[in-house]
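pinned: reference chain
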Amino acid sequence: MSVLRPHAEDQFAEELAILAKSDDRPRPPGWRLSPWAVTTYILGDGDQITPKYIGPRRIVEVAVATLATDRALLLLGVPGTAKTWLSEHLAAAISGDSTLLVQGTAGTTEEAIRYGWNYARLLAEGPSRQALTPSPVMRAMAEGRLARVEELTRMPSDVQDALITVLSEKTLPIPELNEEVQAAKGFNVIATANDRDRGVNELSSALRRRFNTVVLPVPATAEEEVDIVARRVEQLGRALELPETPAALEEIRRVVTVFRELRSGVTDDGRTKVKSPSGTLSTAEAISVVTGGLALAAHFGDGVLRPADVAAGITGAVIQDPVSDRVVWQEYLETVVRERSDWRDFYRACRDAH
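pinned: its structure tokens
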């Protein structure tokens, strides 16, 4: 059975093999590829290697260089800026394994960072290595791989601080066994955090010092964001085996324009100020809206992506608060969308969906 979403190292195994074969540059201990080849894998080469992240090259270079040192990497940004996507591909290219993942939530326990126990064996045999259940971080340390920690600031502070010894001493004590796990060469940590989560569980200064923070920006231009959305929609369409539809660039550009104008609070021409809704309206949400529209067009329409196919999705993305956001969206439709003569079908579709 084919999986719905292959891990990056499986989905792009051919590209990783091409780079490994031609990569003659120095590789840090434990790395599958050199930093130069990892960056090429992430950004593409315009030929055989497709871009996984579209953004400033220097940001990727700094992230890769950080992982080649003894400092951990913190990818920070607003929701939808590809933090998780980038961390997965960095782990795939460097370690060949992106699955050593800790998902941060308010309910994440210290065992997710350190280790747990198989209590049946613990009661039957007492503390032993066989009764110990290693965390993804412990496994990464023992195997010399990258561990990924998602949504670090959503974890309770005491759980976050379990990383301090790991990152500073590169060891994980197991006092119950009077042992420790020392990190093999190649080990490091990539963490992600939304800057909108500031104040949820702030990182302690001791932990923050162990990270080099790289801020991922929103796409700088509309064309850059359109390119990102178009590429990801095409990939998702293939993975979901959606029936092929004709090029949907016009509707993608329209969705991106709406999201960018509502995010920035001003129209593209700078002439009209608009109110911003409570949601983030990220690039990831634009991808979701267009993918949903393609499914509607393929299964319930004529196979061509039209304004009616994206209207419901974009309305749902904008209206997160049923009271205040509804007012914002209504005002935007009447003062901006309605005045654009080539957007009349989109205006009517959104009015019907609203």
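why pinned: The beta strands are 72-77, 101-103, 115-117, 132-134, 146-150, 171-174, 179-182, 188-194, 211-215. The two ends are 40 Å apart (CA to CA).
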